[in-house]
Amino acid sequence: MALENKIVSVFGSSRMLPDDPDYEQARALGRALAEKGFQVCSGGYGGVMEAVSRGAKEAGGRTLGITAKFFRSRPNAWVDEERAVESWEDRLFELIRMGAGYVVCKGGTGTLVELAVVWEMLNKGVMSGKPFVTLGEFWTPILERVREVEAVHGSKWGEAAARIIHIAPTPDAAAEFIAHALAPLERDLG
Description:
Blueprint: E1 7-11, H1 21-35, E2 39-42, H2 48-58, E3 63-68, E4 81-85, H3 88-98, E5 101-104, H4 109-123, E6 132-135, H5 140-153, H6 158-161, E7 165-168, H7 171-189
Parallel strand pairs: 1-2, 1-5, 2-3, 3-4, 5-6, 6-7
């Protein structure tokens, strides 16, 4: 499967507005992912989800929005294809299932849950290793605290042996990391 058929799921706050620097960062992320040939998948609503979809569309990319009937909201105008599921939990697991890679932007408790679930699934080997990136330093204190606890108490799981989450300083760096991580898979399949 070519990179242009690969989907990257992006998580982040629904509260970012177009005049917010974090919105613009997510928009740049959408552009960078689309320029690498990825389809961009998000929760389909506002904030980071809108920004990343908008950036991808502006770069000629394709976007997917996984929405939940639970929220009773319409997808943002930049979503090419909406996939509606019943619940918040179904939405989260569909976003995870769809992704060949993941990027987590700044967010609140919902985004924290998304980060934690993907991290745990990769850490415990519930799903195969997929590239996982946080954009910027926002999540670094949490990541480092968890890593510190695992180092002190020891663990046989993934994060103790190797970093599962890559911290990317810029949208371009996040897109490049995922493209580079998936490139060996493309060579193996080709």
